[in-house]
Amino acid sequence: MEEKESPVRGSCIFCRIVKGEIPSTIIFEDDILVSFLDIAPAISGHSLIVTKQHFETIAETPDEVIQHIALFAKKLTKAMSFALAAEGFNLLMNNKKVAGQLVPHAHVHVIPRYARDGIDLNWRPRKTLPNMLKECAEKIKRFL
Ligand SMILES: [Zn+2]
């Protein structure tokens, strides 16, 4: 894959981790991704999967890179089941600041889950009506 320079690359914390300029607890690395433990974990084992090349969000990330990350995430959850006795997982990718993305470099959180672990990722469901659902689905479907 061709290396692309980005204006933010020099100061991007994840690019610096990828380059080894900032230390991290790496659990896996290949040509496309690096996975390391989150330094501010929701729970022990909370890992990040970051692209080696700088892409801001899922929208800019090439399909083959997304596929590779998804397959690695699956492998990582299996490893967490054996190594950490995880009973479940959250895979989470925040895209853009408004969605809680703190580092503008594409990354996926893999969070091991246990009964009564106290992690709160839940939102309060809003009331909706069948016609609202239908209208919203029609809007989205036009662009798929
Ligand atoms: Zn970056």
How would you describe this protein?
This protein is an alpha+beta fold and 144 residues long. The chain has one domain: HIT-like (HIT family, subunit A). It contains 3 helices and 5 strands. It has helices spanning 13-18, 63-84, 130-141, and strands spanning 26-29, 33-37, 47-51, 88-92, 107-113. A hairpin with a 3-residue loop joins strand 1 and strand 2 (33-37). Zinc ion (ZN) binds at residues 9, 12, 14-15, 54, 105.
Produce the secondary structure layout.
Layout: H1 13-18, E1 26-29, E2 33-37, E3 47-51, H2 63-84, E4 88-92, E5 107-113, H3 130-141
Antiparallel strand pairs: 1-2, 2-3, 3-5, 4-5
Bound molecules: zinc ion.
The site of zinc ion has 6 residues, from helix 1.
